Predict the structure.
Amino acid sequence: MINNTKEEITKFLFIGKDYECLTDYDLVIVLGNNFYKETALVLKKLYDDKKINEETKIIISGNKGTINKNITETEAEIIYKNLLELGLDLDCVLEKNATNVKENLIYAKEIVKNLDEFKKVLIIGKSFIARRVLMVLVALKENLAKFDFYGIEVDIKKEDWYLNKAAKKRVLEELERIAKYTIKNDLKLEEE
């Protein structure tokens, strides 16, 4: 029975698309995270594989975050610098105020003014927050059909998160966040 619980949590949280299933995107929103180099590598791979190009609007979002309080630059700035170090000088908008997923998406929406102008949107973030991203989009009354989520996996992986004490703690805290934010009406369970 406990194995079933792990599987159900995995199916609930880790709902991002596999890389092979990603298509072409005219807007990419990168959520703030502390996987700076890994995030830049994903953007470079998307570019190299022609899933994004020079015309793709790219918003890299993120303030200083809560994990690395000693950093002097924002997560958005550090991710962008890593992208430049990889030799990819794409025109990116750096959104440097967001401190959580909801703010990442609200501020990105303010930058583009009208999400309806975009046919296909890719959101990139830590793999285990995919469900919360979806629920924020529902709360913001967005058309879910145009959004894909790709999850970066470094220290928390879909296959074995429950085997590592720190990873298990983070995943279970994510379930707690979803419950807390849903009660506050920041997240919605389903489209109304």
About this structure: The helical segments are 2-13, 36-48, 75-85, 101-112, 130-139, 165-183. The two ends are 33 Å apart (CA to CA).
